[in-house]
């Protein structure tokens, strides 16, 4: 496996990769494969890293999510940073989609029959707001069929590491109880899976805890210091 790729899933001409933090052009503290333009890294380094990312999925263009921790979804056909939202969908061949993350859950949807792809970003607010269902609904509205849809879940902070105030856990009690791991711990991946598993045909998990693995970006590990963002990249091959 390429050192820049933490994990890869291939589905009938569609490539999905979870990026590591290695092998990019950014310097400390953003090092090295940072794709986020909003963390203080130089525009030149981010642009070079985006070029690396789109090459890893054999795409010529790339659209980057502009997450806001909600459930807004955009259909895109052009490269660049998207409007604020936590879901992107395209039917464009050769246009990679990026869900940035550094502890939150990056996830994707693939319908290879109808050639529709999507990426989503779910932190605790997004899981509560059910960005998963918002993305699924817009995915179908864009021409996908759930009977042909597979999902990919990228690395995120694990339940053991994700300790939060007990009051936050209680917010999930009636809304998304599947995400409750303990009195003070949330399992965001379980929250995302609880919605996807009932509607897609298969879920591929690229396992890894962002806090525990030094190969992944982690906002919590940075402990208030600047850090980069990796995440999940998906593209429909032009060939």
From TrEMBL:
<protein>
    <submittedName>
        <fullName>Unannotated protein</fullName>
    </submittedName>
</protein>
<keyword id="KW-0808">Transferase</keyword>
<keyword id="KW-0479">Metal-binding</keyword>
<comment type="similarity">
    <text>Belongs to the purine nucleoside phosphorylase YfiH/LACC1 family.</text>
</comment>
<dbReference type="InterPro" id="IPR038371">
    <property type="entry name" value="Cu_polyphenol_OxRdtase_sf"/>
</dbReference>
<keyword id="KW-0862">Zinc</keyword>
<keyword id="KW-0378">Hydrolase</keyword>
<dbReference type="GO" id="GO:0017061">
    <property type="term" value="F:S-methyl-5-thioadenosine phosphorylase activity"/>
</dbReference>
<dbReference type="GO" id="GO:0005507">
    <property type="term" value="F:copper ion binding"/>
</dbReference>
<dbReference type="GO" id="GO:0016787">
    <property type="term" value="F:hydrolase activity"/>
</dbReference>
<dbReference type="InterPro" id="IPR011324">
    <property type="entry name" value="Cytotoxic_necrot_fac-like_cat"/>
</dbReference>
<dbReference type="Pfam" id="PF02578">
    <property type="entry name" value="Cu-oxidase_4"/>
</dbReference>
<dbReference type="InterPro" id="IPR003730">
    <property type="entry name" value="Cu_polyphenol_OxRdtase"/>
</dbReference>
């Amino acid at each position: 496996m390429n050192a820049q790729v933490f994990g890869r899933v291939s589905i009938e001409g569609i490539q999905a990769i979870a990026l590591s933090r290695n092998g990019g052009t950014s310097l400390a503290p953003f090092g090295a494969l940072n794709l986020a333009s909003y963390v203080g890294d130089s525009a030149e380094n981010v642009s070079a890293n985006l070029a690396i990312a789109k090459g890893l999925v054999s795409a010529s263009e790339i659209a980057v999510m502009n997450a806001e921790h909600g459930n807004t979804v955009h259909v895109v056909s052009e490269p660049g940073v998207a409007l604020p939202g936590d879901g992107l969908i395209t039917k464009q061949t050769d246009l990679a989609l990026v869900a940035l993350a550094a502890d939150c859950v990056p996830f994707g949807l693939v319908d290879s029959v109808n050639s529709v792809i999507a990426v989503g970003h779910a932190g605790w607010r997004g899981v509560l707001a059910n960005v998963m269902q918002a993305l699924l609904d817009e995915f179908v509205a864009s021409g996908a069929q759930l009977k042909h849809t597979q999902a990919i879940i990228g690395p995120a902070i694990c339940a053991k590491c994700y300790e939060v105030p007990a009051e936050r856990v209680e917010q999930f009690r009636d809304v998304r109880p599947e995400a409750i791991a303990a009195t003070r711990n949330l399992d965001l991946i379980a929250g995302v899976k609880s919605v996807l598993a009932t509607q897609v045909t298969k879920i591929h998990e690229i396992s890894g805890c962002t806090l525990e693995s030094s190969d992944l970006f982690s906002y919590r590990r940075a402990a208030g210091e600047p850090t980069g963002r990796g995440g999940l990249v998906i593209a429909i091959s032009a060939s």
